[in-house]
Specification:
It is a single chain. The protein has 119 residues and is mainly α. It has six helices and two strands. Strands 1-2 form a two-stranded antiparallel ribbon. Helix 2 (38-56) packs antiparallel against helix 4.
Length: 119
């Protein structure tokens, strides 16, 4: 599995894990969290899921399953945290998803100068 199929499978696994976790979290704390705060908690968890996994391990759970990893395209890894931060923030742009129609790398890859490689 490579290319766009690999990226799609990673996305589907990560999205499923995100929805299961956030749904359980909301059901457990439904009486303690105000309705208007649920979207902010969901956004924060989505951000932290991608940022922490990709920064610490270079892999989300989806990438662990498919044996792939985020890699910097620059030779200088001292800015990897900035690349991952940029990559994670850009995931929130709806345009990011559309870039996969035309390319293997999404907008979040191009701008952050990262790619996903198969291990």
């Amino acid at each position: 599995m490579t290319g766009k199929i690999l990226r799609l499978v990673n996305f589907l696994i990560d999205t499923t894990i995100y929805f299961v976790f956030i749904t359980c979290f909301i059901l457990i704390f439904k009486n303690k969290i105000e309705q208007e705060n649920i979207k902010w908690i969901s956004i924060l968890f989505y951000f932290l899921y991608y940022f922490l996994f990709e920064y610490i391990k270079g892999q989300t759970i989806g990438k662990l399953v498919t044996r792939s990893k985020v890699k910097s395209l620059s030779s200088d890894n001292k800015y990897f945290i900035v690349q991952i931060l940029t990559r994670t923030i850009l995931r929130f742009l709806p345009l990011d998803m559309l870039t996969y129609i035309f390319s293997f790398r999404g907008l979040h890859d191009w701008i952050s100068k990262t790619t996903v490689i198969k291990l």
